[in-house]
Amino acid sequence: MSSYPDLYLHIKTLSFLGLICCHCTQDNGKKLCIATCQSHEWRARATFFLVQLLCFIILLNCILCTQYYYVMLFNDTGNLHSVMIFGSACLIISCSYGYLYVTRARNIQFLKDILIHYNDMLSEGGNKGGEVTNVEIKHQFYIYVTICSLNSFIAVISFHQGLGHWSANVTLILVHTFVKIVVGIVISTYVSITQMLTISMRRLNDQLTLLMTATVFGVKVDIQKLIKRRNRLLRICCHDLNPRYGLILLLAVFYTLLAAPSGPFIIISIFTNEELKNKTWLLLGASVVSIIWTIPCIVMWCIMAKCGDITIEANRTIKILLRIPVKKGQNYKMTHKILWKHLQQKPILNVLGLFTLNSRTLFTLLSTIMGYIIIMVQFNELNTEIGSYEHNSV
């Protein structure tokens, strides 16, 4: 297992893909630093224009030669949905690179601020604190690598044959693999940063709990510093993290809603097809491929649902402050203001204010996917009945 911290691996991957062009280094104390130069600016421009050009060519080819992208196993409904997913994947890749290119300066500054906070966490508890931080969040990048490898494997299995032209096979494999890599690394970085902020909030709450015990025994303590650090964490989440990742997360939700129903839809289509349902090996292979196709999307969103833990820790701070006996003074005014401000517990992380990231959102997403599958099956049966009627009429 790599000795590099999780955040370092994410930034290196973002730089390798050209999403954020910078140079990240790690010193002997495991502290991270980001540097940029003129060559990074030229590389960002070249990557942006190259990706936009490739996406435009692929989309144009898909529009002009749509029949090449039809899967022989599907009817018109399945092929239309397949082409929609493919076109959406190209647009998501183009929009992701375009958005991150336009906001590249602010994104670099945001990562620098995050690394300052990360380095402070390492320095706070000495070597022990650094080790705890790395152990608690080091697995996120390896989950991302596993999901991307699984996506690449299933894309090759799904599109290596059965299409109208070999170029369509190659294009579908590359696009469906690359869109998961791009969206996955952005989401994985988001989750990694959120985990780091959650750990910081949890440590602050533990320190506040110790201060509460000290206050009960008459020891004079100053909680102003801890409250300011808490406000700094909330400011990073609400004013930095939410606006910068909102659009990318919204695109990821859109792609998941389109792509995730494809797996169950294939199984249902085969079982309802009189000519194919007696072929046992085809049913077994399609079932395995469909399950593996859907799993990565669900796993990624299960991981994102854990981002709601920072809201739980923020609300826990309010409960701790309510139990701390504070005398009137500067600390009293600050504590009183925070308690009144947070009487209504609101989610901290959201996607452009449309929905929050927690377990409820995961179940809502699953419900929407199930409803979408039902609608697709109904259209598929209607399409099959129309085709049979036209065939009998002839």
TrEMBL record:
State the InterPro entries in the record: 7TM_chemorcpt
Cell membrane as a keyword of this entry, yes or no, is: yes
Membrane topology listed for this record: Multi-pass membrane protein
**UniProt keyword annotations, A-Z:** Cell membrane, Membrane, Receptor, Transducer, Transmembrane, Transmembrane helix
Membrane-spanning segments: 48-71, 83-102, 141-160, 172-193, 245-271, 283-303, 348-375
Gene Ontology terms describing biological process: chemosensory behavior; male courtship behavior; sensory perception of taste; signal transduction
Report one GO cellular component. neuronal cell body
Annotated Pfam families: 7tm_7
Q: Does the keyword rRNA-binding apply?
A: no
Localization annotation = Cell membrane
Q: Which PANTHER family match?
A: GUSTATORY AND PHEROMONE RECEPTOR 32A-RELATED, INVERTEBRATE GUSTATORY RECEPTOR
- In which family does this protein belong, per the annotation? Belongs to the insect chemoreceptor superfamily. Gustatory receptor (GR) family.
Q: What does this protein do?
A: Gustatory receptor which mediates acceptance or avoidance behavior, depending on its substrates.
Its name, as the record gives it, is: Gustatory receptor
- Organism whose genome encodes this protein: Stomoxys calcitrans
